[in-house]
């Protein structure tokens, strides 16, 4: 076990995923049929919502309702968070989530006494760029896809790899994806992250062939990952140099890492915003370079409040564990990704880490 900053061990939750935070549900809508590589993921808060914060670090973000989460503003809870592909077009998927929540009577009450027919659901969203990767530029998420992801949300461990918002993801020349991880602290607090890595930078150290953050794994978490062969490493380095020469990794708008950190602790909006900010340290531990002008890196933080309010030392432990969960989730995303080729449909071919380094998997 690893030791947290406030002392004592931390371990993964029962499913090592975001749903280890009780009350959180996750749903995916995946469009990976021929001609498509995109999707959306909905993180659903418990009934009554969750206290939330956000931190945007990338130079090219695509977001919705992030200003609302400023601690100086009125609304202090969200009903869901949407993560999606489709660049700015994909933000339309949040409309479907709002419609579905409203139909269920969930949202910010607009009258007194509260009337479930008169609510405005609060659904912040962030998107990544995957346009054209599956083929036609117009193949992107819409409102009905957000509604379908909402309907699919459960408390079962969410799928990882190329599902939901991670379907069309790319990271540093390899196929990216969606990953998740969790940790429990001695205090009883649980913290978890779900992250979609679609970065200009690489999540893999090309001097070793291993994900940068693989060393942050909890006991046994990445025991099946080993040093790849020299032949695999040389081949990957040659492909990377060819990509750089073709300028494939340095075009504006083709990236972004987005995600959600959640905890069962009772936090304020300002503390959630701080947790989201510390969570970006996890991206920096797992991706290099990070927060570039071509990335829209955005992290949301949710606090369900089923646990007690932590003291400053415990807050530090929760936030630091959350950052490590972000980094570990990125490793899981890369390990779970699979190769795909949509060149026949006008899209791209993306090689997964496991196919680039087959000798690295025990």
Account of the 3D structure:
The protein has 362 residues and is an alpha+beta fold. Helices cover 23% and strands 22% of the residues. It contains six helices and 21 strands. It has a six-stranded mixed β-sheet. A five-stranded mixed β-sheet has the order 3-4-8-11-6. It has a two-stranded antiparallel ribbon with strand order 1-2. Helix 1 crosses helix 2 (143-151) and helix 4 crosses helix 5 (312-336).
Number of distinct beta strands: 21
Which word captures the global form? globular
| Computed Rg | 19 Å
- In DSSP terms, counting alpha (H) and pi (I) runs of 4 or more, how many helices? 6
Query: What helical percentage do the residues reach?
Result: 10-25%
The residue-averaged pLDDT reads 93
Strand order of the largest sheet: 7-5-19-18-15-14
- N/C terminus separation: 22 Å
Summarize the structure in short:
The protein is of the alpha+beta class.
């Amino acid at each position: 076990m690893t030791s947290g900053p406030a002392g004592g061990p931390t371990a993964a939750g029962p499913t090592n995923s975001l749903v280890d935070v009780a009350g959180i549900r996750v749903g995916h809508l995946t469009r990976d049929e021929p001609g498509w590589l995109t999707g959306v993921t909905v993180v659903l808060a418990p009934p009554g919502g969750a206290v939330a914060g956000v931190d945007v670090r990338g130079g090219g973000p695509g977001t919705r309702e992030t200003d609302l989460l400023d601690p100086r503003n009125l609304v202090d809870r969200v009903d869901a968070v949407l993560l999606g592909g489709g660049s700015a077009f994909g933000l339309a998927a949040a409309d479907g989530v709002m419609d579905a929540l409203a139909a269920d009577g969930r949202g910010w009450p607009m009258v007194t006494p509260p009337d479930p027919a008169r609510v405005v659901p609060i659904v912040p969203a962030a998107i990544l760029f995957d346009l054209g990767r599956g083929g036609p530029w117009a193949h992107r998420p819409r409102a009905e896809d957000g509604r379908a992801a909402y309907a699919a949300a459960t408390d079962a461990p969410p799928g990882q790899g190329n599902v939901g918002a991670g379907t069309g993801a790319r990271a540093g020349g390899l196929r990216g994806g969606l990953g998740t991880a969790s940790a429990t602290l001695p205090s009883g607090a649980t913290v978890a992250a779900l992250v979609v890595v679609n970065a200009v930078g690489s999540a893999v150290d090309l001097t070793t062939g291993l994900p940068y953050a693989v060393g942050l794994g909890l006991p046994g978490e990445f025991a099946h990952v080993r040093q790849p062969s020299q032949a695999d490493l040389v081949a990957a380095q040659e492909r990377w140099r060819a990509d750089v020469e073709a300028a494939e990794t340095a075009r504006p708008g083709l990236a972004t890492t987005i995600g959600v950190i959640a905890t069962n602790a009772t936090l304020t909006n300002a503390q959630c915003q701080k947790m989201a900010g510390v969570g970006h340290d996890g991206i920096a531990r797992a991706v290099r370079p990070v927060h570039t002008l071509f990335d829209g890196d955005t992290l949301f933080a949710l606090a369900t409040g089923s646990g007690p309010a932590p003291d400053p030392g415990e807050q530090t432990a929760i936030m630091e564990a959350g950052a490590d969960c972000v980094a570990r989730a990125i490793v899981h995303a890369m390990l779970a990704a699979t190769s795909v080729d949509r060149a026949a449909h006008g899209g791209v071919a993306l090689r997964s880490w496991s196919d680039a380094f087959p000798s690295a998997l025990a």
